[in-house]
TrEMBL record:
It comes from Spirosoma rhododendri. Its EC number is 3.1.1.29. It is an enzyme of class 3 (hydrolase). Transmembrane segments: none annotated. This is Aminoacyl-tRNA hydrolase. Residues 9-128 form the Prokaryotic-type class I peptide chain release factors domain. Pfam families: RF-1 (PF00472). GO terms for molecular function: peptidyl-tRNA hydrolase activity; ribosome binding; translation release factor activity. It comes from the Bacteria. Residues 98-134 are annotated as: Disordered. Keywords: Hydrolase. One of its GO terms (biological process) is rescue of stalled ribosome. InterPro entries: Pep_chain_release_fac_I.
């Protein structure tokens, strides 16, 4: 499914982040937080909103806002690009239809091998038992 360009409705916030950067970490707000208001989006259709609300329910706030963060890079721009890519990848994955599972049976050889293995293990355990002299 082709998604529209959602960049006009994406909001970014920045904060100080941990990780690499030395003293830079204490001075510069490089952590990027992407916020997208799913329920009030004008670029998505009603059907798309329903699908996204179901598939991304665990990632949405109570107000229906999708919040993603990225903080591993040293620059604000790099973190912003990574979180934007993560956002579009997440939406694309939500619209993918899962591949149908085809039921299969184990082959006769596989079944025979499994039973033979069980027999071998049972024999090993039987040989561990104490033998009573009569």
């Amino acid at each position: 499914m082709k998604l529209p360009d959602l960049s006009p409705e994406i909001r970014y916030q920045f904060a100080r982040s941990g990780g690499a950067g030395g003293q830079n970490v204490n001075k510069v707000a490089t952590k990027a937080e992407l916020r997208f208001d799913l329920r009030n989006s004008t670029l998505l259709t009603a059907e798309q909103k329903v699908v996204l609300e179901q598939k991304l329910a665990s990632k949405l706030t109570t107000d229906g806002e999708l919040v993603l963060t990225h903080q591993t890079e040293r620059t604000q721009l790099a973190n912003r690009e990574k979180v934007t890519a993560k956002f579009y990848k997440l939406l694309q994955k939500a619209f993918e239809t899962p591949k149908a599972r085809r039921a299969t049976k184990p082959s006769k050889a596989a079944v025979a091998e499994r039973i033979a293995d069980k027999k071998r293990k049972g024999d090993v355990k039987a040989n561990r038992r104490r033998i009573d002299p009569d």
